[in-house]
Amino acid sequence: MQEEASEYQDGDAEDLLRRALLDADSAVSVSLRIDGLPVSDAVTVIFYARRDLGTLQTYLTPGSRGAGATVSPGELLRVPCDLDLADAADRADAERLYAQQARTLRDTVLSADLMLELWREALVELLGNVVISTSASVPVRAPLPRLLPTALLATESQVLVTPVCSARTLAEGQPPVGIACIQQELARVYPLAEDPEGCVIDFMERAARHAHDLAEQIAHQEASVERFLELSDAA
């Protein structure tokens, strides 16, 4: 994929559209760099449309991608917050809607990353060492679509934290965003505005109860197997 990108500012819509590089065959891509993030450092948003398929989708990739950059499919995180320009009366109106919706996604990403920094502080305080992962994939399944290709991993407890969102078009405004806490098969999403320290404590208490319940379940199952084997021996 080729692109022309520069740091996003509150410029006019025409300036944003000049960042697009058209593929004469079937695809159009517009890239939007978001730099200076406290945890992610920088991400690049890619709005990607296919004329032949009739699709308009949003992707995020780690880093600040410059002009002519190539992004592999494995580096792209599909984010279900897409542009909706169908109600535009003309080109000028489409430019206005595009700038408005691109700004909405930028603000959403900024808010999520700022909150992720607070979560990092809480995780370090309560759980110890924390590693930042910037990748489109994570080793566990998130309960909702991820918003950022960024995750925090508390290495000792193996708790993974990443921003998630609900699917909606950007024409509907900022999507609902939360912070997902994941530990193996246990996952819980906390509202973005919740106190991170309180959420970490709540999740670890839930994790402890889950581990206790799982241990009891395993013990019960093992006892059942032993009784069955006793019956088999008796026969």
Describe the structure.
The chain is of the alpha+beta class and 235 residues long. It is 34% helix and 27% strand. It has three helices and ten strands; from the N terminus they run αβββββαβββββα. It has helices spanning 13-17, 91-127, 196-234, and strands at residues 21-22, 27-37, 41-50, 55-62, 77-79, 130-134, 150-154, 159-165, 177-183, 186-191. Strands 1-2-3-4-5 form a five-stranded antiparallel sheet. Mean pLDDT is 84; it is low at 1-24.
The low-pLDDT segments are 1-24
The secondary-structure class comes to alpha+beta
Rg estimate, integer Å: 22 Å
- The total of helices stands at 3
Largest β sheet strand count, sense and barrel closure: 5 strands, antiparallel
Order of helices and strands: HEEEEEHEEEEEH
Give the count of structural domains. 1
Shape: elongated
Q: What separation lies between the terminal Cα atoms?
A: 69 Å
- Please provide the count of β strands: 10
How would you classify the quaternary structure? single chain
What proportion strand?
Answer: 25-35%
Please state how the strands of the largest beta sheet are arranged side by side. 1-2-3-4-5
In which range does the helix fraction lie? 25-40%
Arithmetic mean of pLDDT: 84
